[in-house]
Amino acid sequence: QLQLVESGGGLVQPGGSLRLSCAASGFTLDYYVIGWFRQAPGKEREGVSCISTSGGRTNYAGSVKGRFTISRDSAKNTVYLQIDSLKPEDTAVYYCAAGRARANCLYSVTPGSLMDYWGKGTLVTVSS
User: Beta strand 18-25 with 122-126: parallel, antiparallel or unpaired?
Assistant: First the structure.
């Protein structure tokens, strides 16, 4: 069974950091473009970052550039999203997704519509 599981969310104060993990089972993440998306209450889903299959190309939404870092660990079949300098507006459920045939991460964050597999999300709450 192909599955993505996110973890690492929680409650953090403004200015704090979190590292989100996206672990795969049933397939190898190295062959997929991986994207991180988030959805805040009452808002549409937003793509925040993606990483190419080789890991050599990454892209970020303007709202998170310079604060978020996406990376791969092939040995652990896991993709991470390091989130620093958290702001209250970063509060959202964060999802990872994997795309193969249609997805790329060449010039911008891959649209969610091009992704094939999704995790169930992890909640990040930024509040003092």
Answer: unpaired
Pairing of strands 10-12, 122-126: parallel
Give the pLDDT score at 54.
Answer: 82
Ranges of H-type helices in 56-125: none
Residue 106 three-state SS:
coil
The residues that bridge with 27 in the sheet, in sequence order, are none
Smallest CA-to-CA distance from 55 within 38, 25, 80, 37 is with 80
Q: Rounded mean pLDDT of the chain?
A: 95
What is the Cβ-side half-sphere exposure of residue 81, based on CA atoms within 13 angstroms? Answer: 32
Q: Are 60 and 69 in contact (CB under 8 A)?
A: no
**Residue 65 contacts residue 84 (beta carbons within 8 Å):** no
Chain segment 17-61, per-residue pLDDT in tens:
999 999 999 999 999 999 999 999 999 999 999 999 988 899 999
How many helices and strands, by DSSP H and E, does the chain display? 0, 11
